[in-house]
Amino acid sequence: METRYHATRTDIAAEDAEIEAAKRNPRAFAPLYERYYARILGFVYQRTDRKDDAYDITQQVFIAALENIGKYKSTGVPYSALLFRIAINELNRFYRRSKVRQAVNIDDEQVADVLAEMGEENSAETDARLMKAVQQLQEDEMSLLQMRFFDKIPFKDLCAILEITETAAKARVYRLLDKLKTIYTSFV
């Protein structure tokens, strides 16, 4: 039987067993690390300008996860939700320390997805306007936009990462798209 997330109850129970094993023996954390490393690295790399920074931040995510695994209590959602929350916190810490604005690394397909969601055609001019509009967003708004459209995180996972209901996650995304479109159209 499916939970309200993409993983089945059986998947989550198996993952919870891995977490319990890692609480007893840190070496048992390896399957979790191997399962989620590439996904977290990709998530972090999309938000940094330098590959070395992405690797360092990702390393900090997994160090923090392992150091705090004893405190983890299953909530019936995939462990990845916690890892994404840690990644967001590590990225925020990195940008506060370095005093630079968060990077936005996106490709043409991702730009086209956002423009389509806003009901706009994709062209060199609209791409440039969108990038200019994205730069006007607050960091938390930019992070939400990136998670939903660039990382393609489903709403069911997004609500677990943000620790809000799925309805609230959808509302935030659509309010953000409305704001982005308002900014976007002001550049005409």
Tell me about this structure.
The chain has 9 helices and no strands. By secondary structure, the protein is an all-alpha fold. The chain folds into 2 domains: 9-98, Orthogonal Bundle (Rna Polymerase Sigma Factor, Chain: A), CATH 1.10.1740.10; 108-186, Butyryl-CoA Dehydrogenase, subunit A, domain 3. The radius of gyration is 18 Å and the shape is globular.
Strand-helix topology:
Blueprint lengths: L8 H16 L5 H16 L5 H17 L12 H19 L9 H10 L6 H11 L4 H12 L4 H8 L3 H21 L2
Compact description:
69% of the residues lie in helices and 0% in strands. By secondary structure, the protein is mostly helical.
Strand content: under 5%
N-to-C span? 50 Å
Count of the separate structural domains: 2
Number of strands: 0
Order of helices and strands: HHHHHHHHH
Poorly predicted regions are 1-5
Highest CATH level, the class of the largest domain = Mainly Alpha
Q: At the fourth CATH level, what is the homologous superfamily of the largest domain?
A: RNA polymerase sigma factor, region 2, helix turn helix motif
Largest sheet report? none
Shape: globular
**Cα Rg:** 18 Å
Number of distinct helices:
9
> In the CATH scheme, what's the topology name of the largest domain?
Rna Polymerase Sigma Factor, Chain: A
Name given to the CATH architecture of the largest domain: Orthogonal Bundle
User: From the helix content, strand content and strand pairing, which structural class follows?
Assistant: mainly alpha
Helix content estimate: 55-70%
